[in-house]
Amino acid sequence: MAARSVIRSTGSYLPQRILTNDELAKQVDTSDEWITQRTGIRARHIAGDGEPTSFMATEAARRALEAANCGAADIDGVIVATTTPDRSFPSVAVQVQSALKLKPGPAFDVQAVCSGFVYALSVANSMIQTNMARRILVIGAEKMSSLIDWNDRTTCVLFGDGAGAVILERHEDDDGRGILSTHLYANGDLRDLLYTDGGTCTTGTAGHIVMHGREVFKNAVTYMAEIVEEVLDKNHIDANAIDWLVPHQANLRIITSTAEKLNLPMDRVVVTLDRHGNTSAASIPLALDHAVRCGDIQRGQMVLFEALGGGLTWAAALLRF
Ligand code: UT7
């Protein structure tokens, strides 16, 4: 059997500052009740000046290294999924590489917005399976607050900052563990449903998030239902083989709809968006790290990741943890 890639360890970082729904209700015409009922979000973390994306990514990676008892010399490469890099270039990944004193090797960013972590995981998995690397840090890190128009109630209540990381490593044992399949999609015709109205090449500023929420919501429900079906078909398994769903944390109603489609009770779905809102590419590794550290997700269990974001992009991965 060909070697697989396993998640050896996880780590995460959330900024100190917590912004609650009630605080936001003092700034824009919204309420804790509206935000909680429509999204499930209660609070989000907001990065300070000393916490750029590269810092959060590095801290999450440091915790994953500690959890794996790995040193810098054990890591062959770094892939960071982010849509909010500190600068256009260099990448966040090379900043992490330098901060952690890793040896020279591949280091680059992946930009697929909220699906970015699953895209990055898929790329890292391919590199490991083709013997380009043995152990790769895969990180999702975002400073979404840098893209927020704080006067726009339709978006400012949704997003937050943070980072999550995993160490993905080559696994030779024939014990069924590892990434079983990854599924990546985009439909650029839907790019105007969710975008920033600026960009470093066009305006010199990063711009603000613009979202046609209802349309994104409908597409998310449809595409997530389709992609989980594809995952089950490809792996010849029933939904009841899945121990944990770790979804992108954008809206509790989207998550519930996917869980219902899988007939999965909500106590097998990892939900952390109440505490940190939508952290884009960071949301799956943040949720995963939480579930691993509190002992919910155990070695050998079947775990499904799924996400949808700007582009539109959407993606899923099935793995035996
Ligand atoms: O991570 C990337 C993927 N993103 C997503 O998956 C997000 C997908 N979309 C959503 O999660 C939801 O569409 C939202 C949470 C963004 C919005 O929820 P909704 O139930 O679709 O609300 P809506 O946009 O249909 O707006 C309903 C009402 C509107 O008022 P009227 O026109 O009915 O009078 C909005 O103006 O709610 C109003 N509204 C708000 N009210 C209080 C919109 N935002 C707010 C707010 N507070 N923050």
What name goes with the CATH superfamily of the largest domain?
Thiolase/Chalcone synthase
Classify the secondary structure makeup into a structural class: alpha/beta
Could you give the distance between the termini? 18 Å
Low-confidence stretches: none
Strand content: 15-25%
Bound molecules: oxa(dethia)-CoA
How many domains would you count in the coordinates? 2
CATH architecture of the largest domain: 3-Layer(aba) Sandwich
The percent of residues in helical segments reads: 25-40%
Radius of gyration: 18 Å
H-E string: EEHHEHEHEHEHEEEEHEHHHEE
- Major sheet characteristics: 5 strands, mixed
Strand numbers in spatial order across the main sheet: 1-7-6-4-5
Mean pLDDT: 96
CATH topology of the largest domain: Peroxisomal Thiolase, Chain A, domain 1
**DSSP helical segment count:** 10
Description:
- This protein has helices spanning 21-25, 32-39, 53-68, 92-99, 116-129, 153-156, 213-235, 252-262, 273-276, 283-293; strands at 4-13, 18-20, 43-45, 77-81, 107-110, 135-143, 161-171, 178-186, 194-196, 209-211, 244-247, 302-309, 313-320.
- The chain is globular.
- It has 321 residues and is an alpha/beta fold.
- It folds into two domains: 4-171, Thiolase/Chalcone synthase (Peroxisomal Thiolase, Chain A, domain 1), CATH 3.40.47; 178-320, 3-Layer(aba) Sandwich (Peroxisomal Thiolase, Chain A, domain 1).
- The structure holds oxa(dethia)-CoA.
- Oxa(dethia)-CoA is lined by residues 30, 34-35, 38-39, 114, 153-154, 157, 213-214, 216-217, 220, 250-251, 254, 278, 308-309.
